[in-house]
Amino acid sequence: MGSWRVAGVQSSGQGRAMKVRILVFGRLKERFGGRSTVDVELAAGATLREAVRELEEGAGALGGDVAVALNGDVVRRDLDAELKEGDEIVLLPPVSGG
Questions:
Q1: Which CATH class is domain 2-92?
Q2: Strands 2-5 and 73-75, how do they pair?
Q3: For the segment 24-69, what is each residue's pLDDT rounded down to a tens digit?
Q4: Of 5, 45, 46, 65, most Cβ neighbours within 10 A?
Q5: What DSSP string describes 27-84?
Q6: Cα–Cα distance between 48 and 87 in angstroms, integer?
């Protein structure tokens, strides 16, 4: 399990920090040093969109084909959902094969 401190996330929160866990699968693991779990520290009140943006700044563009889930629910459009301490974000690359 790795730990990243993601700085620069601005939000309307009180400036306190919170930790969220990112689970990474498939080809995306390579961008995170082979780790499948990354703990990230964000400003209180940060949104899912801000978290994804910060991850992309540190690990490169995730690509439009990556599905994002928050606490077990795949997020289709609402990347503006406010995150809470202990939330779990899952990044799922497309699966191919036959």
A1: alpha beta
A2: unpaired
A3: 888 888 887 888 898 888 999 999 988 888 888 777 777 778 889 9
A4: 46
A5: GGGGGGTT-SEEEEEEETT-BHHHHHHHHHHHH----TT-EEEETTEEESS-TTPBP-
A6: 10
